[in-house]
């Protein structure tokens, strides 16, 4: 009698921005059943469905990170609630929890969403029943997520035993009712990458029959092909028995209706705030035709709207998928004739998916083409759960086996190399595996929401009232073995096509006088940046570092500053430094910067050109971080003596990290301190919001 009642419950909360944390929570929920456990799963925002104040069972939290280290939007209320300073230090003393944080080490505040919640729960007396895991999207979340989930079952089992001992009940019945979990030592520091790789290795060797299904070997690799590829494997993977994820239950059904009616307005797809449809009034190509990257400046007319911004803010553009790719997808799915038909999307009756709900980003009623164009990220890199579902839609034995390999534990490095790192999307997979014919409901279940794209503002409302400018490079994805066609970025490719008729003949300057007007409109919404703004006190000096299109927000800063200087001749203004880098002196150089220097808005302009060859005895600096080192004394003075600000904008991996390393070296040298001390100073500057980054990977 007692054993039957003991399907033990734990609370499982997830906080997601783009669906990753939710998918991982669903995987945990699914595996829990096989371990004789029941996960009570909720989005952390559903605060009416759970109560941590009275929660007696163990709690598992999966939480991602967004923006510059913020918790996801869905966790904002929860974080605000637990950060209430009036809460006593034993507020959560009854709580046992384990937390899995998701992040990307490309960004400064890695996993900060998870770390914030973890730290605060500890401060309020909550206890870990399992070590915190920090998974890194930069190297592959699964390197930490998989072993963390493996170790969770043993940790939960121990937490339940402890709980029962506290309640004074015999622990024998409990242990007999829990299925033994394979032992993966959960005392390991799961945020150590080396440890992750060891774990990964051990786990591949261990016999793994929990929720995975053992797949027989169908094929023997031919001796000709010794190199693996997207469609072809080599030993040991090709000869391994595979442990693959459980098949995710289907939960959506799609019904075709008629062709009458209207699609919803784009504003109904956005929950983040008010959308504005605004005309593009000007387009200027900033780079020459033979430049490696094409940079465009667009000007939007916001005069007839209440859209407001400060220099340094960002805003989002609602963009569609490429129409040719949508048509191609319809063709492969055999639905070319159905594109203009309205579809009704419902949750399947009797689905086994826990908490199945109508996806919020899919309208109640719209045409199939509208869904594929405006709602689903058809370029998304397919997750392993999607690959697992595609296996069932594939008829060719060889293709089926390869898809199984790519979603298996044994094929983890193949997945990383041929899918994740190659930026492969659903269309690429359908070309590579022609016998794979997925149903429409599968796409709606597995493709994430098409996200609006964020851009830094490159103008000042004070300097150009009623105008908003922004600068971007047209993103290029060159062809590669896994993807035989080259592609442009979803949004930058669409914008470039949209403004092609407008492009200004004068391409080497930010001079935006003249040009023809256009009736092309785009939908935008605000995404204010709370930190990346000019110092409130105009007498404070600051340094701006922005190579390439990273200069974008600084044009807005300088326009704003110029206007303030004109309007307030009696104010004291601090010195301003701009370190700008581009490829070639005769090509990408912006004349407007010279004007700021000549009229005194800019005190120091330091420029470097990474691709120009030099005949000078001492080669000039090639990169912005080299320039910074040349002016070490001045930069240290601005930061340390004059309490100035330091702004960095642009590419994260290849530039921003190099700049912060250079700043650490400068601080170390000028303060005559060791590197660790200098790193602490930089951390304090970040904390004080005086070292600010607007970076992208």
Automatic annotation (TrEMBL):
GO annotation terms (biological process): cobalamin metabolic process; folic acid metabolic process; homocysteine metabolic process; methionine biosynthetic process
E.C. designation(s): 1.16.1.8
InterPro entries, sorted: CysJ-like_FAD-binding, FAD-bd_FR_type, Flavdoxin-like, Flavodoxin/NO_synth, Flavoprot_Pyr_Nucl_cyt_Rdtase, Flavoprotein-like_sf, FNR_nucleotide-bd, NADPH_Cyt_P450_Rdtase_alpha
The FAD-binding FR-type domain, residue ranges: 273-535
CDD domains: methionine_synthase_red (cd06203)
Subcellular location: Cytoplasm
GO CC term, one of those recorded: cytosol
Catalytic reactions on record: 2 cob(II)alamin + A + 2 H2O + 2 H(+) = 2 aquacob(III)alamin + AH2
Alphabetically ordered keywords of this record: Amino-acid biosynthesis, Cytoplasm, FAD, Flavoprotein, FMN, Methionine biosynthesis, NADP, Oxidoreductase, Phosphoprotein, S-adenosyl-L-methionine
MF term (GO), any: [methionine synthase] reductase (NADPH) activity
Residues spanning the signal sequence: none
Chief subcellular location: cytoplasm
Needed co-factor(s): FAD; FMN
Pfam families registered for this protein in UniProt: FAD_binding_1 (PF00667), Flavodoxin_1 (PF00258), NAD_binding_1 (PF00175)
Gene3D superfamilies per record: 3.40.50.360, NADPH-cytochrome p450 Reductase, Chain A, domain 3, Nucleotide-binding domain of ferredoxin-NADP reductase (FNR) module, Translation factors
Residue ranges constituting the Flavodoxin-like domain according to the UniProt record: 10-153
Subunit: Forms a multiprotein complex with MMACHC, MMADHC and MTR.
UniProt protein name: Methionine synthase reductase
């Amino acid at each position: 009698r007692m054993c039957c009642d003991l399907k033990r419950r734990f609370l499982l909360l997830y906080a997601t921005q783009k669906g990753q944390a939710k998918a991982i929570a669903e995987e945990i929920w699914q595996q829990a059943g096989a371990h004789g456990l029941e996960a009570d799963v909720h989005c952390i925002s559903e605060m009416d469905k759970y109560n941590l104040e009275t929660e007696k069972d163990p709690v598992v939290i999966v939480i991602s990170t967004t923006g510059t280290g913020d918790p996801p939007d869905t966790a904002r209320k929860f974080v605000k609630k637990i950060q209430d300073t009036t809460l006593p230090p034993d507020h959560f003393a009854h709580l046992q929890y384990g937390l899995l944080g998701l992040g990307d080490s490309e960004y400064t505040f890695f996993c900060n969403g998870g770390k914030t919640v973890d730290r605060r729960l500890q401060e309020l007396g909550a206890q870990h029943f399992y070590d915190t895991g920090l998974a890194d999207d930069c190297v592959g979340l699964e390197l930490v997520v998989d072993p963390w989930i493996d170790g969770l079952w043993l940790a939960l089992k121990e937490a339940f035993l402890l709980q029962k001992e506290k309640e004074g009940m015999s622990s024998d019945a409990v242990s007999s009712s829990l299925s033994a979990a394979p032992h993966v030592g959960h005392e390991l520091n799961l945020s150590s990458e080396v440890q992750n790789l060891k774990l990964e290795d051990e786990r591949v060797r261990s016999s793994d029959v929990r929720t995975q299904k053992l797949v027989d070997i169908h094929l023997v690799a031919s001796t000709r092909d010794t190199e693996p590829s997207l469609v072809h494997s080599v030993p040991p993977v090709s000869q391994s028995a595979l442990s693959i994820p459980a098949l995710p239950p289907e939960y959506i059904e799609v019904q075709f209706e008629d062709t009458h009616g209207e699609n919803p307005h784009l504003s109904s797809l956005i929950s983040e705030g008010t959308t504005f449809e605004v005309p593009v009034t000007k387009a200027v190509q900033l780079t020459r035709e033979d430049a490696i990257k094409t940079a465009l400046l667009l000007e939007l007319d916001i005069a007839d709207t209440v859209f407001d911004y400060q220099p340094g803010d960002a805003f989002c553009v609602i963009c569609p998928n490429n129409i040719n790719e949508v048509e191609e997808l319809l063709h492969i799915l055999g639905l070319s004739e159905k594109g203009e038909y309205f579809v009704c999307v419902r949750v399947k009756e009797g689905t086994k998916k826990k908490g199945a709900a109508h996806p919020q980003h899919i309208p109640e009623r719209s045409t199939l083409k509208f869904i594929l164009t405006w709602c689903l990220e058809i370029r998304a890199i397919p997750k392993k759960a999607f690959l697992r579902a595609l296996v069932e839609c594939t008829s060719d034995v060889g293709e089926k086996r390869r898809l199984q390999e790519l979603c298996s534990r044994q094929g983890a490095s193949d997945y990383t190399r041929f899918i994740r790192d190659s930026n492969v999307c659903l269309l690429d997979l359908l070309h590579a595996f022609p016998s794979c014919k997925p149903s429409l409901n599968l796409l709606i279940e597995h493709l994430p929401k098409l996200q609006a794209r964020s851009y830094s503002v490159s103008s000042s409302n004070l300097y150009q009232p009623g105008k908003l400018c922004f600068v971007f490079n047209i993103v290029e994805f060159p062809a590669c073995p896994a993807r035989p066609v080259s592609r442009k970025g979803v949004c930058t490719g669409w914008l470039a096509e949209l403004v092609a008729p407008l492009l200004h003949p004068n391409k080497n300057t930010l001079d935006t006088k003249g040009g023809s007007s256009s009736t092309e409109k785009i939908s935008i919404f605000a995404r204010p940046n709370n930190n990346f703004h000019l110092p409130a006190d105009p007498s404070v000096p600051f340094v701006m570092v922005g190579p390439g299109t990273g200069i974008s927000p600084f044009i807005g800063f300088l326009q704003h500053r110029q206007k303030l200087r004109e309007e307030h001749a009696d104010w004291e203004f601090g010195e301003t430094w701009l370190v700008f880098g581009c490829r070639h002196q005769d090509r990408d150089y912006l004349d407007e910067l010279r004007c700021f220097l000549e009229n005194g808005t800019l005190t120091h302009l330091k420029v470097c050109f990474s691709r120009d060859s030099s005949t000078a005895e001492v080669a000039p600096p090639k990169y912005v971080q080299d320039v910074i080192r040349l002016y070490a004394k001045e930069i240290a003075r601005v930061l340390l003596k004059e309490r100035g600000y330091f702004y960095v904008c642009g590419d994260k991996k290849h530039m921003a990290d190099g700049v912060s390393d250079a700043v650490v070296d400068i601080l170390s040298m000028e303060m005559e301190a060791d590197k660790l001390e200098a790193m602490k100073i930089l951390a304090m500057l970040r904390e004080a919001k005086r070292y600010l980054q607007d970076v992208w990977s």
